[in-house]
Amino acid sequence: MAKPAVDGLQRNLAGRDIELLRLSASSQVGGQIALRYGVRAVPTLIVFDPQGQPALQQVGRVDADDVLALLATYD
Fold first, then answer.
1. What is the Cα gyration radius of the chain?
2. How far is CA 4 from the centre of its chain?
């Protein structure tokens, strides 16, 4: 289940200038975002680089260590 891992990421990112946004693929906006980025399965986590380009995509199990390591390269 991705929720506990994403909750942990959210706690780790608190106070940093990083926004974590959760979307439901069944909502209008979430569905549009899913189409735009080719999301085919739920859960999917996409990390964007500072230029707004997808830098990491994880489907299924979220590996918080990989996400945090990537984000550390942007500090």
1. 12
2. 13
Query: For residues 67 and 11, is the Cβ–Cβ distance under 8 A?
Result: no
Query: Helix or strand or coil: residue 17?
Result: coil
E strands along the chain, which residues?
Answer: 44-48, 54-59
Give tens-digit pLDDT for 7-59.
999 999 999 999 999 999 999 999 999 999 999 999 999 999 999 999 999 99
Listed in sequence order, the DSSP H helices in the chain are: 3-13, 28-36, 64-72
* Residues 6 or more apart whose Cβ sits within 8 Å of residue 46: 37, 39, 54, 56, 57
5 CB contacts (<8 Å, ≥6 apart)? 61, 62, 63, 64
- Distance between CA 52 and CA 11 in Å, rounded? 22
| Global confidence as pTM | 0.91
Where in the chain are the domains? 3-70
